[in-house]
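Aim 2 progress update. The chain analyzed this quarter is reproduced below.
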Amino acid sequence: MTKYQKYWTLLIILLVAIIAAGSLVIWSKYRPGQPVEISLPPARETPAGEIYVGGAVNNPGFYPLKTGDSLDDIIRAAGGITDGADPGQLKLYIPDTGEEPPQKVDLNRAEAWLLQALPGIGEVRARAIIDYRQQNGQFNHTNELTKVEGIGPATYQKIKHLVTVAD
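Predicted C-alpha cells:
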C-alpha cells in the first residue's frame, strides 16, 4: 500500500466515524412526542342551504336559508313582493332529488348573445340593456329593466321569470 492510499483509507475511516458518532448523538436526543389528538369542535348550527325565490318578488334569485327562517323572512330577502302581486296565491315548489333549478340569465353579467335568447329581446334591446348597465352600473332588481329604452311592462312580464341579478 502506498503512502497516498494510506491517507485515503484513514480519511474514509475518519468520515465513517464522524457519521456514526453524529447518528448516535441524534438518536440519543430523539424522544417520541406525545400522540397527536385530533378532535372536532362541537357541532354548530349551519345554514340549511339555499332557496330560490321567484315570481312576483322584486329581486328573484337564490337566498341563504337559515334554520328558523319564515316565509316572510325569505320574501323580504328577495326585496318583497311586487305591486299587483297576489300574496294569496303563494306557491311552494319542492323539486325532486337531482332536479336542477331553472337557469336564469344574469342581467349584470350576460353578454348580448345571451340576452337576445330572451323572448322579445333582439339585438337592439340587448345592446340597450348592456348600454344601460355600463352607464348606470349593475342592476339591483330585475324590474329595473323597464327603465331600459325599448323595454316596457309587457316585455318585462314576458321575461321576468327568466332573468335574475347577481350580488
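The chain has five helices and four strands. The CA atoms of residues 119 and 159 lie 7 Å apart. These observations will guide the mutagenesis experiments scheduled for the next reporting period.
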